[in-house]
Design goal:
This protein is α/β, with parallel strands linked by helices. Helix content is 32%, strand content 28%.
């Protein structure tokens, strides 16, 4: 290869690299993670080491609730008017709130209603109730400065075919519209609703 061809070939390589540099500056491989992730802490939890069997207690399957699109992600919505929703800055759940809420419901039903929570696969071998529903609201109301948790439950009790429906709601004041206040208030509200649901389950057995 002549010196002229080597220079021309090297120039083409340099042009390719130079063209790629501005594009690389526009690409992002994942957003900047928040300083902390939010989760829910169950106030009522199963006691360690206590064995449970579906033959000795009422069994139930707790389904992950359906959710509207505004809480189908890991952000915390803020309702600023009847038709406007934003999200709390730097607030993000460790996983979608529907899953966190279902797990909290399961722990509370076990601890408070003394029920054995089964997976859908496990329920084929034992008669069990089925708790489904929709988590209608799980965020902040900026106009009232409240954390709002609304759960529309749909319960089919063991051995029955009819579906019982009931709405459960909790509202907790928040001092500020920020990540720290949102996490604490929504955890408190979720526990309040979970206790209401567990008492409902226990009363109808």
């Amino acid at each position: 290869m002549t010196v002229r061809r080597m220079i021309a070939s090297g120039s083409r390589h340099l042009l390719v690299i130079a063209a790629a540099l501005p594009l690389a500056g526009c690409l992002s491989f994942g957003g900047k993670p928040p300083k902390q992730l939010l989760t829910l802490a169950a106030a009522s939890q199963p006691q360690p080491g206590v064995e449970q069997t579906s033959s000795a207690a009422s069994a139930i399957v707790v389904q992950v609730p359906a959710v509207p699109q505004s809480i189908a992600n890991t952000r915390v919505p803020v309702q600023s008017s009847d038709t406007t929703i934003a999200y709390v800055k730097d607030a993000q759940w460790a996983e979608p709130p529907a899953r966190l809420f279902a797990r909290l419901l399961a722990d509370t039903a076990t601890a408070r209603a003394k029920m054995v929570v089964l997976s859908p696969a496990q329920s084929f071998g034992a008669p069990s109730a089925d708790l489904a529903g929709e988590l209608r609201s799980f965020g902040l109301d900026a106009t009232r400065r409240e954390a709002v948790v609304i759960y529309d439950a749909a319960l089919t009790r063991a051995g029955r075919t009819e579906v019982e429906k009931r709405r459960f709601e909790a509202r907790v004041p928040v001092a500020a519209i920020d990540a720290l206040s949102a996490g604490a208030a929504l955890s408190q509200g979720a526990n309040d609703v979970a206790v209401q649901v567990a008492d409902w389950l226990r009363a109808g057995r």
